[in-house]
Design goal:
This protein is mostly helical. The protein has 9 helices and 2 strands. A two-stranded antiparallel sheet has the order 1-2. Helix 8 runs antiparallel to helix 9. The longest helix has 18 residues. The two termini are 31 Å apart. Pfam families: BldD-like_C, HTH_31.
């Protein structure tokens, strides 16, 4: 395995692990010692080759198809991740309550869960945008345009929604 391929594979492994909110130590705990933190870390850095069998077992542990872990298999061939969705909480505070109430409550819940009270901005996930779209009874792209028009989301958010639609 080329070192570049190993590094790309490792980056995919790290991305899946972090998406699941697991630290390397967390993987070891959750797997009850089956996956040692030092071994998974070396796979992620590309320092250690992973066999096909071990890769399949790791994919099963993470609950993802093996192909999700292989380099060059990103959906739509997009190598670049979609832009982050960042709510401007200061602008949100100036949107009338009858329009922004559900979003304000949702943002407050996320802040509470994260213990993040900087009050200026709040990063949200694609899943959060989909949930908000259901709450607002709109498609994610229509809601994104609404939030951009309120000044709550940056226009870059369109690319995140377009990335999801493709």
């Amino acid at each position: 395995m080329s070192s570049e391929y190993a590094k790309q594979l490792g980056a995919k492994l790290r991305a899946i692990r972090t998406q699941q909110g697991l630290s390397l130590h967390g993987v070891e705990e959750k797997s009850q010692g089956r996956w040692k933190a030092v071994v998974v870390g070396s796979y992620e850095r590309g320092d250690r080759a992973v066999t096909v069998q071990r890769l399949a077992e790791l994919a099963d542990f993470y609950g993802v198809p093996v192909q999700e872990l292989l380099p060059g298999t990103t959906p739509g061939g997009a190598a670049e991740p979609p832009p982050k969705l960042v709510l401007d909480l200061e602008r949100l505070a100036h949107v009338p309550q009858e329009k922004a109430g559900p979003l304000q409550r949702y943002a407050a819940t996320i802040q509470s869960q994260r213990g993040d009270y900087n009050g200026k901005v709040l990063s949200i996930r694609q899943d959060d945008l989909r949930t908000l779209a259901v709450i607002y009874d709109q498609s994610p792209s229509v809601l994104t345009e609404q939030l951009i028009s309120w000044g709550v989301l940056d226009a870059d958010a369109r690319r995140a929604v377009a990335h999801e639609d493709s």
